[in-house]
Amino acid sequence: MAGAASALFLLDIKGRVLVWRDYRGDVSAAQAERFFSKLIEKEGDSQSNDPVAYDNGVTYMFVQHSNVYLMIASRQNCNAASLLSFLHRVIDMMDFGYPQYTEARILSEFIKTDAYRMEVTQRPPMAVTNAVSWRSEGLQYKKNEVTSLLLFLQVFLDVIENVNILVNSNGQIIRSDVVGALKMRTYLTGMPECKLGLNDRVLLEAQGRTTKGKAIDLEDIKFHQCVRLARFENDRTISFIPPDGAFDLMTYRLSTQVKPLIWVEAQIERHSKSRVEMLVKARSQFKERSTATNVEIELPVPADASNPTVRTSLGSAAYAPEKDALVWKIKSFPGNKEYMLRAEFHLPSITAEEATPERKAPIRVKFEIPYFTVSGIQVRYLKIIEKSGYQALPWVRYITMAGEYELRLV
């Protein structure tokens, strides 16, 4: 099988990186500069027209188009001909000067699985020539004529934060961060202009507003292509014409230390190599007004354990031998509460002389907390403006979820 590309670079005539896409994280922009240096060194050489170069473990495949170099770098034993063919295809995607966009929703208008006749027009599709390549013109959503309620003309915004935590056996947090996303679903007529405001510290301070306890500092912000980046950099306003349907408007990260929302302690006692007793305490460390739902606590047990007996003060627990774990499920876990689980497992009375080392898996926790965010992010406003003047209904929801949430026992 052909090796995979590590990164795709577009460089100007002087070798400066214009834009690049990192696929595997093993080639940096510095390698692109080394590539161009090698290219300069080869000038006048009999192999100067060779589209493939190799240096220090990295293979470079490139094509020059006008004043731009398209270059793929790879650290694997890759199929150079296939990747060079791909670069030529990238160039060919400019048809009569029009970029051939590959937005899935736009392509679905022209690529059909059933018999379909496309009317011949004198101009390219609007999605090709339009600056708003991610949205088709002429979208229409209607209201229910019987109830006069707007079944569509709505915007749903979900602010979802995933909490990643790793706690060692001494109870110390050795890694924690929050990865957030603003996920939208839009059902709007025409070409609406949307404006979104957050409790962003930079913006509020620029406006002379107080920020104590009400503003956040976002890191590693990434936007969907529909967001006007120049506007955001200028006044921190998130302004955009949305795609139709579901899309991720923005992602962000917070690297500040996070207090574990659900804390789990486990005491394990072994009795004469034939029986194991486990006492587990789970405590919610968020305010009482919030409630975690669909809580799952995965507790590792010995691979040869059997015949478990389990008692819980809330929820239910079941032995999952395929995971070598006891899974404790709590449907609703209110804030500032503590619950307990007691379990007893039997072990084989006969053990091998050379027993394999016991697996040291961590406790893993899953949960969702609706109407709650760790970062404190808030949507201050969401405005929808369209030239026809219709009224749209925005809905905003906040959810915090467990990402990679682990507590080590040893």
From TrEMBL:
The MHD domain, residue ranges: 152-408
Any single Pfam family the record assigns to this protein: Adap_comp_sub
PROSITE patterns (UniProt xref): CLAT_ADAPTOR_M_2, MHD
Annotated InterPro entries: Adaptor_comp_med_subunit, AP2_Mu_C_sf, Clathrin_mu, Clathrin_mu_CS, Longin-like_dom_sf, MHD
Keywords of the record: Membrane, Protein transport, Transport
CDD domains documented for this protein: AP-1_Mu1_Cterm (cd09250)
Subcellular location: Endomembrane system
Family: Belongs to the adaptor complexes medium subunit family.
Full protein name: MHD domain-containing protein
Organism per entry: Brassica napus
